[in-house]
Amino acid sequence: MTSVSEEPAWRQRAVERSTRAAKLRAEQRVQRFLDSAQELIAEKGTTDFTVQEVVDRSKQSLRSFYQHFDGKHELLLALFEDALSKSAAKIRQAAAAEPDPLERLRVAVEMLYRSSLPNPDGQQPLFSDFALQLLVKHPAEVATANLPLLAVFTELVEQAVEAGAVPAGRPRRRAALVMQTVMFAAFVAQAGGAAEGHAAPVTAEEVWRFCLGGISAPPPESGEQP
Question: How far, in whole angstroms, is CA 204 from its chain's centroid?
């Protein structure tokens, strides 16, 4: 009978320590690339920058950049994902402070709308020019990036249904429709309201009232597609 020799515990610990250190260094390098790209976006007010500009600002190498990103689109996608994830966490926290389920949903809708608009510090909105480009060229990746935010809105719709504040029926789909409405309304607003033909800005309250009318509507008749 052949005995199976086990790797010494000290060797396992050494390898694990080395792996953790390498992972930490990689995360720090990636964050420096993301921070540099965000700074360039804030300065330029657009995503019209080169990979080399990001590399130079981060004081890292081009080789290091391509070890972590396949190209500029992956860097932008990472920024978009990070922004959506942070927004989802903030919205969840703010909504949780409201005792009424419908008020939680209102807070979420209005926060998403405001965070999707340009703001004075120069940070790009969530639904910006590069988000549109990513949506057209990489729809599956954008859908994945939206999952944390979709989860929050789905939970809020479900809570409103359980409280009897809105009719039941496919909460995830309704949450997705609400998000799409809010973010596109913000996109049109930052484009100058061209679709409306006048300069009056759409307010967060208007967007909420419109979304409320949609989710408060009775579900489709049997056999109809919702």
Answer: 19
* Residue 205, both tokens: 């309250």
Max Cα-Cα span within the chain: 86
State residue 196's pLDDT score: 53
Q: Residue 102's pLDDT band (boundaries 50, 70, 90)?
A: very high
Q: Which tokens sit at 221?
A: 């008749």
Give the whole-angstrom CA distance, residue 40 versus residue 161.
43
CA terminus-to-terminus distance, the chain:
65
201-213: b or e for each residue (b if 16 or more CB lie within 10 Å)?
Answer: ebebeebbeebbe
Q: Has residue 122 got a pLDDT over 60? A: no
Does the predicted model carry a pTM greater than 0.85? Answer: no
Q: 222 is written with which tokens?
A: 């049997």
Per-position b or e across 70-95, b if 16+ CB within 10 A of its CB: eebeebbbbbbbebbeebbeebbeeb
Task: Give exposure, 2-34, as e/b (b: 16+ Cβ within 10 Å).
Answer: eeeeeeeeeeeeeeeeeeeeeeeeeeebbebbb
